[in-house]
Amino acid sequence: MDERASQAREVAVAAHVSARGGPVVAPATWPPPGPHEHAGLVLTLWDYAEVERGEIDPLQAAAALRALHQALDDYAGPLPALEDRLDRAHALVSGVEPLPALTPDRRRFLGDAFVLLRERAEASRPRARILHGGAHDGNLLRTRDGLRWIDLDTVCRGPLEWDVARLGEEAAALFPEADRELLATMRLLVSAEVAIWCFSQYGRAPEVDEAAHFHLARLGEGV
Predict the structure, then answer these.
(1) Which pLDDT score, from 0 to 100, does residue 212 have?
(2) What is the pLDDT of residues 80-130, one digit of tens each?
(3) What's the alpha-carbon Rg for the chain, to the nearest Å?
């Protein structure tokens, strides 16, 4: 999907959630949110959210995720499947293009772990629902009006456990319907996917490099 179509979908999803009182930063109403094109760039416009300093409470984050899911449940527009995204990650780690920051043995380990975890997750035949797709603290703002999700371009259809995997154990307990065995697998599969994307962009920013090594080490401990 091209950038304009992706941003148009993000605006549509956010408008839907906002109209239902869900915890998102809403698209602008005036001027129109777009997408707009200017000087070769595609951009969208959003309401201003005044961000407050301080840590995000994990239990509040879990409550905000549940509220987001509830507002997304009846969204009827087209959405990608999580499987499409996992296919792209697999193509990166198994393709002919090198990942220079990874030695050949580390790349093989990452690719094998990704395939193993994906097969393990698929074997449970989980039910798909609409997810944020990237439900980590970096996509959650602490504002004067409460917690608000951003970056809804990752919204997709997939198992609940993919989103819940981003929460700590105590916060994840607020989702008793999540399968605990599948959740453990998804925590590692998330790390595998993050490691692949970060190693494919290695050197772009210090936090990208740090995340690449953190998640690869997490896989080494868990697989």
Answers:
(1) 96
(2) 999 999 999 999 999 878 788 999 999 999 999 999 999 999 999 889 999
(3) 18
What is the SS3 assignment for 53?
coil
Three-state secondary-structure class, residue 118: helix
DSSP label at 74? T
Instruction: Please report, as a single letter, which amino acid is at residue 20.
Output: R
Domain containing residue 165: CATH number: 3.90.1200.10
Asked whether the whole model's pTM tops 0.90, one would answer yes
Which domain covers residue 161, as residue numbers? 3-222
Q: Provide the CB-side half-sphere exposure for 78 (13 A, CA).
A: 4
Can you say whether residue 51 is alpha, beta or left, with left for phi > 0 and alpha for psi between -120 and 50 degrees? Answer: beta
Task: Please count the residues of the chain.
Answer: 223
pLDDT of residue 138: 92
Structure tokens at 126: 């989980």
DSSP sequence for 163-213: HHTTS-HHHHTT-TTS-HHHHHHHHHHHHHHHHHHHHHTTTS-HHHHHHHH
**H or E element, residue 153:** none
- Cβ proximity of 6 and 16 under 8 Å: no
Pick from 216, 213, 211, 208: which is nearest to 188 by CA? 216
What's the distance, CA 89 to chain centroid? 13
Q: How many domains does the chain have?
A: 1
What does the pLDDT read at residue 187? 97
